[in-house]
Every structure is written in C-alpha cells, then in structure tokens.
Design goal:
Elements: E1 33-34, E2 59-64, E3 67-72, E4 77-78, H1 82-87, E5 94-98, E6 101-106, E7 113-114, E8 124-125, H2 129-133, H3 157-160, H4 163-168, E9 174-180, E10 187-192, E11 199-203, E12 211-213, E13 216-219
Parallel strand pairs: 1-4, 9-12
Antiparallel strand pairs: 2-3, 3-13, 4-12, 5-6, 6-13, 7-8, 9-10, 10-11
Length: 220
C-alpha cells in the first residue's frame, strides 16, 4: 500500500516504460506501482489483506525441507533500487505483521555469479532459492516447470500465457535478489525478464523501469 491506501495488484506485471528499452514484446507498458512517484519507503508498506479482491497480493506457498515460504507471484514495485530496499530492511529481512501474523519480509537468494560462462539463460551459481523454486533446477511438488529458453529467441504471447509464467510472472520483469555480484562491488544480482532462469546484474543504486521488488514472507 502507499500512504495507507491499497495499490491495485499489477494486472500487467512487467516493465512500466517501453520508451527506453523498445522491446518487441510486451507491446504495452506494465502497470506495476512506481517507487519514484513517492521515493520514500515510509510511504510504502505491506498491510493487511484488503476485503476487495482487486488489490490482494497473491503468494505462492512453498513447503520445503521443513521451512515455509510465501513468495509473491509477481513484482509489485518498479523503479526501486537495491539500495532503497536495503535501507528499508527488505533485503536480508524486516519484520512485518500481516493479518495479525508476524513474518520476516526479505528478498529471495538469487546466486552471485553466472552458472555457465556469461550465459544468463543457464541460471546462477551457487545453488540458490530462485533457481530452486522458480528457475526449475529442482522439481518442487505442485509447481510447473519452465520451458528452457536460450539467447536469440524473442518473447511471445505463448510465453506470456505459459503455465509457468502465469504462476511466477517472470516475463518482462527483473526481480532484485539478496546477493552482490561476485566480481563487482557495486553490482547486485537480479533474475527474470528473458526467461524464468535468467541471471542478470545491475548497479545497486539504479532505479529502472524493468527492475523491482518481489517480496518473500517467512513466518516467524
């Protein structure tokens, strides 16, 4: 929510401005909330579930190795930097109360280096949460597996409507993850956009129209 009012759940959860990147797909801008419209995390919060279904966030619940995680099914805030999230405590974890329950709200682990050479389509190393739960490196009961993708293949309507993207909404959106990039002190790792497994990096202080916040809740 922003300033105490629930924001609509993004119906087009991908980059919010096509003018700079000029991608062939998607063809219309996304509608994710824009942090730069109110660049102060004191004005943004995860609140109780609203009665109206339109702004309700959707969470994919993971039960894995005795741990329960609620991973948001889409990016909910664009043009927010890793530094912004870190200053607010959302990188490694900040306690929040939602519907009377306490959670640690943080980012997913996403690896710290390319898994194979500099091929972002192969995922990240070392083993990490993003590749385990979203990238499809390991089968998790109840979750669809992504269709392998490689460089040179453009995103299409078929990708947008794929069962895996409908669950995770990775297309056209790059989610910040916790780790710094192994080989550059000012770079942070982010995942998604070109494929479910795609590994990318960007300067930690930058705010971009295609990079943002996908929260994770860990019950306390």
């Amino acid at each position: 929510m922003r300033d105490g009012t629930a924001c609509p759940r993004p119906a087009r959860p991908w980059l919010i401005d096509l003018s700079l990147l000029k991608p062939s797909f998607p063809r219309v801008p996304g509608d994710i909330a824009d942090f730069e419209a109110a660049p102060d995390f004191g004005r943004w919060a995860l609140g109780d579930t609203p009665a109206d279904e339109v702004p309700q966030l959707r969470w994919n619940e993971i039960e894995d190795e005795g741990r329960r995680l609620l991973i948001c099914d889409r990016m909910i805030l664009a043009r927010v930097s890793w530094d912004d999230l870190n200053a607010a405590g959302y990188v490694t974890g900040r306690q929040v109360v939602i519907d009377g329950r306490r959670y640690l709200c943080r980012l997913l682990g996403g690896g710290e280096d390319f898994r194979v050479g500099d091929d972002g389509y192969q995922g990240a190393a070392p083993a990490n949460e993003w590749d385990r739960y979203i990238g499809g490196n390991e089968a998790v009961a109840g979750l669809p597996s992504p269709v392998p993708r490689g460089a040179g293949r453009e995103l299409t309507d078929e990708d947008l409507a794929s069962p895996h993207n409908l669950v995770w909404n990775w297309l056209g959106a790059v989610s910040w993850t916790r780790e710094p990039y192994l080989h550059r002190a000012t770079a942070r790792c982010c995942r998604g956009y070109q494929s479910a497994r795609f590994f990318y990096l960007n300067t930690q202080s930058h705010r971009h129209e295609d990079i943002g916040w996908r929260p994770v809740l860990e019950p306390l």
